[in-house]
Amino acid sequence: MEQQVSCERCLKELQTDLEWKSLRLPDPPCILRPEVQEDEPGNGAALVGFLSTIRAHRVQIAGSAEIGYLDAHPGEFVSFLTDRLQLLVLADGVVLADGFWQQIENHKVAIFATPQPARSVLVRVQHYLQGVLAPKQLVHGVLVDVLGVGILLQGEAGIGKSELALELVSRNHRLVADDSVLCVREAPEIVTGHCPPALQNFMEVRGLGIVNIRELFGAAAIVNSKRIRLVIEIRDMQEMEMADLDRLQGQVDHFSILGVDFARLRLPVSPARNLAVLVEAAARRHYVRESGTDMLADFDAQFRLAVNSAL
Question: Which domain holds residue 36?
């Protein structure tokens, strides 16, 4: 889905933080979109910078230093009014001279003013645009925080994802989202999962219906977002070809979200298997692998040593 945000929305959602006001809103409204370069996702923070002719940012911040320079060199102001400029933010409580306003008349530029320091305004607007313009995707599944590892549980409808998540919550782990996970690519290799606002705190459990996890288990059982590190797909044991299942390292492939590949472990489900314990073990194993330990290689080395010692 295309990510975009209007200047009016920026004005409203950052009003409390930046205490800014609108001095000029063009018609039609200005719409900010991330700029995609090659195969990289759009970067909302890259749209923002200090008033500059070297790199014409779409959102330019002008503080006392920039306005002081323009007051001393009024003829330079026209060089900032490129077609790329969509929003000019006057920080440090500065004001534009009347002559500058006359030059703006023929340009579709929104202008906001705030008394806050220019550096603080730059950082806050960059952080906001980076979040609101980041690539997003809705993914079916249940996201849980198990021992600090964000695990996306997947599987066919009715396979038992929500029941598994409920058992994990009862074992002092945390729920992020049930049924639908809003994934946000916040950095080239970082995807975080969020709960859509309409589903916050709630879970559907077959046989029980809708339950409020926060009310049942307390606020500590819910986390607003979590970085996804591992995907676990629950499969019916009869549908999986058990003869072809690698008993040494399990059935592992990759699952892509917003262009980022995640290791996906496929677990067969049956009445005799405790999936909650297996998911906890998978989270611990993920920690061990990230630390640089290869348990399969360690087992192979130990087995070879034992065989050689017996000969």
Answer: 5-132
- Residue of 160, 67, 176, 190 whose CA lies nearest to 118: 67
Catalytic annotation on 179?
yes
The residue annotated as part of the active site, out of 24, 57, 58, 161, is 161
Is 178 in the active site? no
Number of structural domains in the chain: 2
Residues 6+ apart with CB under 8 A from 22: 11, 110, 111, 112
What does the alpha-carbon distance between residue 209 and residue 196 come to, in Å, rounded to a whole number?
A: 19
Claim to verify: residue 151 and residue 264 sit in the same structural domain: yes
Per-residue pLDDT of the chain (311 residues), as tens digits, is: 568 999 999 999 999 999 999 999 988 889 998 876 545 555 788 899 998 878 889 999 999 999 999 999 888 888 888 888 999 999 999 999 888 998 888 888 999 999 999 999 999 999 999 889 988 999 999 999 999 999 999 998 888 899 999 999 999 999 999 999 999 998 888 999 999 999 999 999 888 899 999 999 999 999 999 999 999 999 886 655 554 555 656 667 889 999 999 999 988 887 767 899 999 999 998 888 887 777 777 777 887 888 888 76
Q: Is 173 a catalytic residue?
A: no
247 is catalytic: yes
- Among residues 73, 140, 254, 273, the one annotated as catalytic is 140
